[in-house]
Amino acid sequence: MENLEKIQTAARIIRENPGKGMAFTGAGISVESGIPPFRGADGLWSKVDPSFIEIDTFRRAPEECWSKIRELFYDHWGQAKPNAAHIRLAEMLNRGLLAGIVTQNIDCLHQRAGAPEEKISEFHGTLDSLICMKCSAVYGPDHSLLEQNLPSCPKCGGVLKPDFVFFGEGIPEKAFHKAFYLAERCAWCLIIGTSGEVMPACEVPRTAHRHGAKIIEINPAPTTFTSSITDVFLQGKATEMMEALAAESALS
Ligand code: OAD
Ligand code: ZN
After folding, report:
1. What is the mean pLDDT of residues 68-87?
2. Which of 123, 181, 197, 233 is the most exposed, having the fewest neighbouring CB atoms within 10 Å of its CB?
């Protein structure tokens, strides 16, 4: 019952400020699509050392890094399908309730759920393209390039790198500006499935809060946001909470 009241409160915030919301998502929204999170007991970083996606290591030993990248990111993540939370969020966007989505995820599941590309800020880049370390050419999802042990640029022969943010790299400029543009203007921010432990991404909802936005958070466990900036904490899985929220916001 307590959660139902909170869902009603969250739905009221959404209904009263249509078009003035943003979503901020992390690995947790894709857990029910079969993609493991990064932190916690089942997280990727508890099983593998993340140095293979450090930019200096990649520069030194790209072929070794690629074999891990292929195995951990491309082999099974490519099979993942959007779940009900991605779909409900895309509906909120397409029905004009949300102004945009800022995601830390590189799995493209928001787009595959029907969210328009131009309304998404991929704060940590994407798995869907490869970028040449030498001439900066960008290639779309091209599986023939991934088959090479060391994917290389068809134009200049340079090493190709997945176009997501490695440790030691900056945030893509366009995504960064889009994210903070939304955060400074939104009336509400819906945080879904992120531990909020990674800088500067975690500054996005904090900026929204500083600018007066109401913060709604969905997560099975409390996070660094919960006791600091969250107004309405919906404790539970992304799919269940998004279904309930969509029903209450008259989205169904
Ligand atoms: P984390 O792995 O740090 O956090 C995942 C969050 O999802 C946790 O708070 C979980 O409680 C929550 N969660 C688990 N199952 C869930 C479910 N079914 N529904 C909703 N939430 C659930 O992932 P992020 O916060 O996204 O960076 O991590 C941020 C960044 O750290 C990533 O973008 C990545 C990583 O290093 C780069 O790759 C640059
Ligand atoms: Zn090149």
Report:
1. 90
2. 197
Task: Express each pLDDT in 126-152 by its tens digit.
Answer: 999 999 999 999 998 777 888 899 999
Domain span at residue 193 reads 1-34+80-124+170-252
Residue 194 and residue 102 in contact, taking contact as beta carbons nearer than 8 Å: no
DSSP string for residues in 45-104: GGTS-GGGGBHHHHHH-HHHHHHHHIIIIITTGGG----HHHHHHHHHHHTTSEEEEEE-
Atom of ligand 1 nearest to the CA of 45: 36
Question: How many domains in the chain?
Answer: 2
Does ligand 1 lie within 6 Å of residue 82's CB atom? no
Average pLDDT over residues 103-108: 97
d(CA 249, CA 252): 8
Specify the residue with its C-alpha closest to ligand 1, atom 25: 194
180 and 233 together in one domain: yes
Enzyme catalytic residues: 124
Q: Is 55 in the pocket of ligand 1 (CB under 6 A)?
A: no
Ligand 1 pocket, residue 42 CB under 6 Å: no
pTM summary value: 0.96
Residues 151 and 176 in one domain: no
The 10 Å Cβ neighbour count of residue 77 is: 18
Task: Report the mean per-residue pLDDT for the chain.
Answer: 94
- Residue whose Cα lies nearest atom 22 of ligand 1: it is 28
Read off the CATH number of the domain in which 174 is found.
3.40.50.1220
